[in-house]
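Quick one, C-alpha cells below. Sequence please?
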C-alpha cells in the first residue's frame, strides 16, 4: 500500500523481530501519551529518507542498532490516521534482547513506558486495528522467506 501524496505527514518505523527458539517475537512499545502499543517509529526529519528515519527512530527509542533487513527493503504504509499522518514500516531482525527506553531530550522522560517481546498472536490481541494491519503484513512477508 503506497500513498503517493507529496504533502503528507509521514512517520517511519520498523517491525523489530527476534528469533526465540523455533518462532519469532515482535518488539512492541507502549506509548506514554496515547497508551497504545506500536512498533518503534517517528516523524521523518528534513533531509532524511524514510529508511533513514526508521533506523534513527529505532535507535533513539530502543537503543537497538544491529538491525538486519533480511526480508529486504520492502515496506507497508498504513492508511491516514490521527491528523492525516501515514506510517511506513520496514521489517528487520535483531539479536539484542534487552531493550532500553532512553530519555527523550525534548520530553525530559522516555517516550514509551514499557517494551515487550511478544509472539504474533499476542501482538494481535494487544494492538489497534491500524497496527494489526502492519502485523498481518509482516507475518506474510516473513512467511515468504
Amino acid at each position: 500500500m503506497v500513498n503517493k501524496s507529496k504533502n503528507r505527514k509521514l512517520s517511519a518505523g520498523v517491525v523489530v523481530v527476534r528469533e526465540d527458539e523455533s518462532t519469532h517475537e515482535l518488539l512492541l512499545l507502549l506509548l506514554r501519551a496515547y497508551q497504545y502499543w506500536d512498533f518503534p517509529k517517528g516523524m521523518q526529519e528534513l533531509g532524511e529518507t524514510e529508511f533513514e528515519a526508521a533506523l534513527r527512530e529505532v535507535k533513539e527509542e530502543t537503543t537497538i542498532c544491529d538491525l538486519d533487513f533480511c526480508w529486504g527493503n520492502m515496506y507497508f504504509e498504513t492508511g491516514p490516521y490521527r491528523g492525516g499522518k501515514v506510517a511506513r514500516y520496514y521489517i528487520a531482525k535483531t539479536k539484542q534482547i534487552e531493550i532500553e527506553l532512553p530519555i527523550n531530550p525534548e520530553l525530559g522522560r522516555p517516550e514509551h513506558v514499557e517494551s515487550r517481546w511478544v509472539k504474533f498472536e499476542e501482538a494481535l490481541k494487544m494492538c489497534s486495528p491500524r497496527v494489526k494491519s502492519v502485523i498481518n503484513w509482516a507475518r506474510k512477508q516473513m512467511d515468504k522467506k
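The domain at 10-144 is CATH 3.90.79.10 (Nucleoside Triphosphate Pyrophosphohydrolase). Helices lie at 50-62, 120-126, 129-144.
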